[in-house]
Write a structure and sequence with these properties.
Length: about 140
């Protein structure tokens, strides 16, 4: 059976009798290659069982790798697209924030104008009350004398 036709749904059992975990290589020689390996490392008493699932890059022709990258299977390209999407969302949110800050400034200005108008109306009312009280006081004073 060739490595390219391996069915990863069939789980391997190692010499220890455990089901093997599907792992991903993070080494510079085999980045991103998947493999089945014993749950326990050799240092921890494991049997060291190991079997590649993905073919090595030596066995893969360049055109299939290029097709894989072109089709968007390249994780770096996916991450770049995600970063671009997040940057666009950030820019959109910044724009909305600026618009809302401008609206807030306009509303604060209107609020100040309304408060000034209300204060001015209170001053006018107070003047009328004072004039009225003065007139009542003068009338009262002259009625007594």
């Amino acid at each position: 059976m060739s490595q390219s036709s391996v069915n990863i749904e069939e789980v391997d059992v190692c010499k220890c009798g455990y089901y093997c975990r599907l792992k991903t290589s993070r080494t510079p020689l085999n980045p991103g290659r998947r493999f089945f390996g014993c749950k326990a490392s050799k240092e921890n008493g494991g049997c060291g069982y190991f079997r590649w699932i993905d073919p090595s890059l030596e066995n893969v022709d360049e055109s299939s790798l290029m097709n894989r990258f072109i089709d968007g299977h390249n994780p770096i390209d996916r991450l770049k697209r995600k970063v671009k999407e997040l940057e666009e969302e950030r820019d959109s949110l910044k724009f909305q924030l600026n618009e809302n800050e401008e609206k807030m400034m306009v509303l604060n200005k209107k609020l100040k104008e309304v408060k000034l108008q209300r204060d001015w109306e209170n001053v006018k009312f107070n003047r009328v009350v004072i004039v009225f009280l003065c007139l009542l006081t003068i009338k009262w004073f002259f009625n007594i004398v």
